[in-house]
Batch of 2 targets.
Target 1
Amino acid sequence: MTHIVEEAGTIARAFVEARRAGHALPDYPGTMPATLRDAYVVQDAALTLAGGQVAGWKVGKIAPPVEGEERLTGPIFADQVVGGGDAPAMPVFADGFAAAEAEFLLRLAATPDPAKTAYTNAEARALVDAVHVGIEVASSPFPGINTHGPAVTVADFGNNNGLVVGAAAEGWQEADIDAWTVTLSINGKAVGRATTATMLDGPFGAVRFLLEHAARRGLALAAGQWVSTGAVTGVHPVKPGDRVIATFDDRWTVECSITAR
């Protein structure tokens, strides 16, 4: 492990305080983590400083893979999870980074065995009791968070700043959700359209990754937590005043407005 460990507390404190105050960090507050391992040290320090209830975890794709990892993760705090009715207003850091992502949200049915470090996708699926449509709001005080590699993203809570939980995707148990087309629109204009067939091994693979990652890292997952399984149509920049609508399989929609933090 590199010298970043010595700076982890300082970096974490800068991000946590900026998030609490709602102000930007134009420059990175220290040495950028060079490895994912270093980045999770910073994230762990920030989790301790932030406190608060973790209601779930976001999982994102790393492309191309780094250090043998194809995905990353970050916490989703309970006070930033909202229902999808009435297009809730979701705050972002106007002078930082802000984006919206259409995602399938999978809910854990039970607390996984903390000693189990390897899962099949079928085992991961068996630990899911609900699939909802949703929007992840990605936002960070640091405007360059997505331009310096996945370790920098990981260090600031994986760039998560909120989750809009939409309708339950009824029938998911028998369906191939990888075949469901997802569209994301901003201010009435479609900016992305895709399926989860393009996302590694799909939403249940994202749950598998989180289960294995959490066991290795000593994270306590719990029944009822959400797994935001990855941006189906891409990471789409947004700004205050924008209206975001995600449509899933032409059957379910979820929307939100974007406001300044």
Note: Residues 102 and 135 are 5 Å apart (CA to CA).
Target 2
Amino acid sequence: MKTEFDYASLKKKYDTKIVRRLNDMKDRFKDVSNAKGNPVIYSVYIKDFGAFEYGLTVIEPGTINSEFYMTKGHRHKKPVEEIYILLNGKGKLLIQDKNGRTKAFSLKKEKIYIIPKKAGHRLINTGNRRLEVLTIYSKNAGHDYDFKFKKRIFKNKHKI
């Protein structure tokens, strides 16, 4: 019986892989007018455990007109929590509640971040290498990717 988890093996032994390129996310960035090509923004490696899934989200380093690479962001269709754990890199976790109040957390290794029920959440890579975050969530949580975030984070520290 195997009881250990080696997250690095998830990049090789996953059930589903999602790759998001710039063309998949043009509506998420404030301004894509000077963007070149269709780079990979992030990938998610997902392992199914029946009642729950865990994923390894890997966000590439980079910016689009000074706005950092980020995930699409979402909230869950069912009122469930999600767990995030920083494995590598430097980034922020953006959480927006149902009333539009938004907070950006600077991710720290060895800290566990619990996404509140019904809150929108997005990861942002603010570093110069890949950001890797382990996520654990209920398989039937559902994902609402039409959620709109009010705050953005730019390289020059300008936030709107």
Note: The helical segments are 22-25.
